[in-house]
Design a protein that fits this description.
This protein is mostly helical. Helices cover about 70% and strands about 0% of the residues.
């Protein structure tokens, strides 16, 4: 039986002889798509991270930003497994990215408005809208990064994504650092938010270049996935199908044991950004710290990606190596965090530490740097574990939706704790305990990771199985 995408094969096979064909072949390669989604995330959530990394989203009072983040994460948790998967199933990643990307400049615009009007309701509403938009963006991103590359190249793909994505947060924070270098107000300038709006909008517009999975050709000739399958059954039918898929996903006991790790994936942001960076450092020092936090994630992404793609280890061995590495680095870094928090509490001052006091500044700076690196270790490992469980875009979307739901739930709880002004040492203790417990719970799932499939075993997820190879 002929594939529904077979009519495109003649272009893909004859194309390399022409400039148009070469452009098409480059566009439909997994690496091009990984770079494209990385650039989109560079512009949208990367710049959002730069704002959040300032502490209180650049505002003197962090309560409004904390409440907006709670609204954002609650909306993400509610939509990542309900609204988004049926639409992804019907229309694919490009439409999801176009639906979600515009909400990022909207949120920056709300913060710019707050600088003039102090309208907190608009910021919180924009945060809730951004939560839904973020669900669309991250489900599409996860499906692309997790499923487009071949099995033994997924760690590298995750690493490349993490580098480019966090370069956005780093550059955004350096922009803020330059624009606010001489500021004494504690609140970022209007020009900072305006710059973020422009970059976020550009990132959103790049979504039009994302290729659907059935047009993406891997190195072995297999397609990344089938065409969108839900158009003919509509939203309601697709929604019911996604519920069935979700129930099926929960039959895999390994996913249940990874849910606590998903829950913790953004839990530490509120403590690190508001109670460490926002409460301890001056505005310009916070901007510099924020930049280096995301730069650290670039190094962390490269390292964890290379570790999880070591050719001389089997996939089960790589899973265990990654676990041991994260356990050791995590307890070392958070142990340093405990020492810092006790020292900071003894100072009795707020937003006081500047890089001009280099002897006092250097230790907390490096702690914050390693906090960023550990975030990349943790999330990169979570993505790799999901990649080990799912090879097709639709399977990946299902797992990423689950990941984002529990990640957002954990983040909402953490930001609410922060908004309620719990002591910083209490927040650190909660973070460290949850991280340690989730690692212990995940051990059986890590030990149950199976070897990588051979080329002949790779399921193209289409109804035609393996007959959708590119004709030479």
């Amino acid at each position: 039986m002929a594939s529904p995408v077979a009519k495109d094969v003649h272009l893909e096979s004859a194309g390399p002889a022409t400039l148009r064909g070469k452009i098409y072949q480059t566009w439909t390669s997994p690496m091009t798509q990984i770079i494209l989604i990385s650039l989109i995330c560079f512009g949208c959530p990367g710049m959002y991270n730069a704002i959040g990394g300032l502490g209180g989203s650049g505002q003197l009072d962090s309560t409004v930003a904390a409440n907006a983040t709670v609204a954002l994460l609650a909306a993400t948790a509610a939509s990542a497994l309900t609204l988004v998967p049926p639409i992804f199933d019907m229309f694919g990643p490009r439409v999801c990215l176009l639906l979600g990307g515009w909400t990022y400049p909207l949120y920056s615009g709300a913060l710019l408005c707050y600088n003039h009007t102090h309208n907190s309701a608009f910021v919180i509403a924009a945060g809730a809208i951004l939560g839904i938009g973020a669900s669309f963006l991250w489900v599409a991103q996860g499906a692309i990064v997790v499923s487009y590359p071949l099995p033994d190249k997924k760690g590298t793909a995750i690493g490349i994504f993490w580098v480019i994505f966090n370069l956005g947060g780093g550059i955004g924070s350096f922009i803020s650092f330059g624009l606010n270098f001489h500021s004494k107000s504690g609140t970022v300038s209007n020009g900072t938010y305006a710059a973020f709006i422009v970059i976020m909008s550009a990132g959103w517009l790049l979504s039009v270049f994302i290729a659907p999975p059935h047009k993406v050709i891997r190195e072995d000739g297999s397609r990344a996935g089938p065409p969108p399958s839900g158009k003919h059954i509509g939203f309601v039918g697709s929604f019911k199908a996604e519920i069935n898929k979700f129930v099926e996903a929960l039959k895999d006991w390994r996913i249940w044991l990874l849910i606590p790790a998903f829950f913790c994936a953004n839990f530490f942001y509120s403590y690190q950004q508001n109670s460490v960076n926002g409460a301890t450092f001056t505005l310009r020092a916070r901007s510099l710290n924020g930049a280096m936090y995301w730069i650290a994630q670039m190094f962390g992404g490269i390292f964890i990606g290379l570790l999880l793609d070591l050719k001389w280890l089997t996939r089960p061995q790589r899973a265990l190596a990654g676990f041991i590495f994260i356990f050791v680095t995590g307890f070392s870094i958070w142990g340093g965090g405990l020492a810092f928090q006790r020292w900071e509490d003894a100072q009795g001052k707020v937003q006081w530490l500047d890089f001009s006091e280099s002897r006092k500044y250097v230790g907390p700076f490096w702690l914050y740097f390693f906090y960023g690196m550990f975030d990349a270790f943790w999330q990169g490992y979570c993505y790799w574990l999901m990649a080990a469980l799912a090879d097709s875009p639709h399977e990946a979307a299902k797992y990423v939706g689950l990941y984002k739901t529990f990640q957002a739930t954990g983040g909402a709880v953490a930001w609410r704790i922060n908004a309620l002004k719990y002591k910083a040492l209490t927040q650190l203790t909660i973070n460290w305990a949850l991280l340690g417990a989730s690692l212990v719970i995940a051990i059986p799932a890590v030990l149950a990771i199976t070897p990588s499939p051979t080329v002949n075993d790779i399921d193209d997820t289409s109804s035609e199985g393996k007959d959708e190879k590119v004709l030479e």
